[in-house]
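User: ok so my PI wants both of these folded by tonight, can you help

Assistant: No problem, let's get them done. Here's the first:
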Amino acid sequence: MKKLSSPVLYIREAFKIYFEKKNLIYFLKLGLLFLVLSIATSIFFVVAKGTGSNAARQPAFILPLVASAIPLAIIGIWFQAATYEAVIRAVEGRTLVVKETLLTSWKKTWCFFLVSLARGLIMALGFVLLIIPGIIFGIWFSFSLFIQISKGTSVKESLAKSKALTKGRFWPILGRFSVFLLIYILIQMVFANIPYVGPVFAIFMGPFFLIPFYLLYKELS
């Protein structure tokens, strides 16, 4: 079985891909669009929440609160799906058009959500069972979202294909994931110490954090 590339190589390649001019502009446009949508929806949510502060006495005010919360959740899931789609397009050298990315990812958002939910529930169950099973499940199904977005597979097929990819590679994958996670934590700590704009920068760096995982997925494939 071929030895996987070192985690440092994946990180280095991720920097190269993310900061390539055309890719960076593409990622920034996508992030800015969803940031504006999220802010607009959040403002509506806050207003609705304030309006419904006396919802216990006036149940009718619950409606605008729920009506604003649902779009906010949908936008969040859509943004995650679009980020995965964007990373795949950038790494594979495909067309980098934001509109096309949004339309393509929108069609996959529901199944993407179901895969994400199924994976999350399985991992949660594993962690309840003395943590170790949760780590194992996390590695097995770690590539399921990339598989779903890139191949349009069902929930069951996405999870099954991800598990098959990790067969005989558990420890090498876990080691690389640990390095990726460490880099993510360090960068997030830096952003956390930047007042106001730090969380915004973190949003725009989302694709960068995914690229090493996709590169590893490609090599396993």
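One down. Here's the second:
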Amino acid sequence: MPIVVFNQKGGVGKSTITCNLAAISASQGLRTLVIDLDPQGNSSSYLLGNSARDEQPTAAGFFEHTLSYSFKSIPPTDFIVATPFDHLHVMPASAALNELQVKLESRQKIYKLREALKQLANSYERIYIDTAPALNFFTRAALIGASGCLIPFDCDSFSRQALYALMDNVQEIRADHNPDLQIEGIVVNQFQPRANLPQRMVAELIAEGLPVLQPYLPASVKIRESHELCLPMVYLDPKHKITLALIALHDGLRS
């Protein structure tokens, strides 16, 4: 079941949530893939460390191949690399994704990722897709091809304002392109239980009937250490409170 992690607001923890959920899947023995469609490449760096800068297959290479008139069909698995972690692979991002958008849109290649995801389902039991903080070509392609969408929410008023438009956009894509797409839920990130504003905001979302997931992910400086060391939390500190919250979140998602 491909899951897209998406929010049009930056800095809400998309890459952190994507990589940590994927690492948990892999640590449970599931064949797991992360597709990084954010040109910033934070998920790629998180999972590959310094080797993310190396010359290697990328998501840009996959999309560029869809523009080719070559009769040689290259399987999407050829654009995937192994991470240092068992059962965990990544299709890395590249800054070249930015340059490809106009060409891909003009050539109507929006469904090519969906076709690739169907093929990749034969090789992977879990697929997570990280996206840029924008409803661009790649984000739309991911939502068209995915089964679920997770929405990180960081208890900020700007994030809340963006939330409603985001959910409308997802529902529009579901109606027009992908009836199987479901909003898996809103992931409350960097939650501070003793602060009034986060508690009030989350309570209001729940009162509105929005699909707020439990547990909330606590704010923790340990995440920054995890980023610096390129070690998802399940490998860095499996008993830490945020690791346990991530595991509970992971295990509560649809299989």
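Residues 49 and 174 are 35 Å apart (CA to CA). The chain is about 45% helix and 15% strand. Good luck tonight!
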